[in-house]
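does this look right to u?? adenosine-5'-triphosphate version
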Amino acid sequence: MKLHYQLNAAFTALILVLMTITAFFIYSLLMDMLILDERRQLEARADILIDVINDQSPSSGPTLSQLVQDRNYPMLLFNQEEDVILFRTMPANIAQEWVLRYEGELVNQEVWAGGGERFVVYDFPLSPRSDQVLVMATPLNDLQAVQSVFALRMIVVILIGLILAVLISYFFTRRLVTPLSRLKLELKKIEKRQFDQLEAVEATGEIKEVEQSVRNMASELSRYIHSQKQFFQNASHELKTPLQSIQGYAEGIRDGIFEGEAAEKGYNVMISETERLKKIVNEMILLAKLDSSEDVYHPERTDIMSLVTQAHDRLLPLAQEKGVALSIQTDESFYAEVDHERVLQAFINIISNAIRHAEHEVRVETFEKNQSLVVKVSDDGEGIPQELLSQLFERFMKGKGGETGLGLAISRAIVERSGGSIKAYNESGAVFEIELPSD
Ligand SMILES: Nc1ncnc2c1ncn2[C@@H]1O[C@H](COP(=O)(O)OP(=O)(O)OP(=O)(O)O)[C@@H](O)[C@H]1O
Ligand SMILES: [Mg+2]
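got this back:
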């Protein structure tokens, strides 16, 4: 069943239950209220009667018996000492029954039974010293008729209330469910990868938050699919170039086009290209393993400062060869739970890039920040090309004079596996900052 109908049904059922319970309580209290009210009226009527009796003069106004009979009031006047009926406007059998049962049973009751009927009564001694008791009565049937009319009206009110509740619930659930239905359509577009056709959904509260998350997810997915495509294009290009060169030399040597020294050069190119292919494939495998958390990363308590020093020492000859001054500034030990081989490799990748792109010098500095160690590598080269900056750490992303474009992708994968982060920006040259949390 659609959510819209489910919410409507739940809301209507709730209103129905609430109204029924309320109606039931009102209905059951109503009879008590009617009896109370009727007794008040009987009392008022009794007061009028007593006034009439007191004012009675033989010549003026209706007689007492005329008055009560005209109005059809069931009433009874009797002497309770002698059990004698003095006056009555009700059937004799009921009057007789009440006189006999009065003292022992009926005296404090509000509803008396008699002649198969029930009556609301108001009884009181006519005067403080007399034994005469006046009983005014109203058949309960009359009150039950009032109660039934009330019940009927209540049912009409409940029905009108219910119709209004359904209309209101329809309005509100529509407001709630429409953005969800729109969101469903947007998700269908994501499923079909129609990222450029996504439209904003008007919503508020949690639905708006979900919509925002869906949009973020879509743009992340779109970016991921794009980078995967680019990865495959770059990877196939990267692998095709050395393979073509190997194939060209191999065919040339087989067909006798390259002989002697030329063949010798061909063999050397084939070997170096094979080496390059092997390096690319190994790095791709390493990246895949780092991504899929296979057993290539063995963390242990490691002093990051000593790794920075080791990277510096290993790259010093390369820097001297290029005429670049490689300076290092380290502090006391900083321990982190990392795979030292891998993190050393990440440092070497970044520092060797800096040496390759530096004009005169490369600086490696370290400082602590929020329980983490930042290793900052800066050079005085031309900086990172602007168009490369946003995708610098993607696989096979390389600029002019780059090699395979996997070094930074591997470095980022290692740093992230170590629980850290890496970023790059330009200052007077390129700057790379690697942040590693302490153990
Ligand atoms: N210090 C730097 N200054 C300027 N550009 C840089 C610097 N470091 C990296 N780059 C740019 O980033 C690109 C990607 O670097 P990355 O290390 O991933 O690949 P690579 O050095 O080209 O090849 P390899 O996989 O052999 O390291 C480089 O080709 C270069 O254009
Ligand atoms: Mg590199």
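Residues 349, 353-354, 357, 379, 381, 383-384, 388, 392, 397-399, 402-409, 430 surround adenosine-5'-triphosphate (ligand 1) (CB under 6 Å). idk if thats expected tbh
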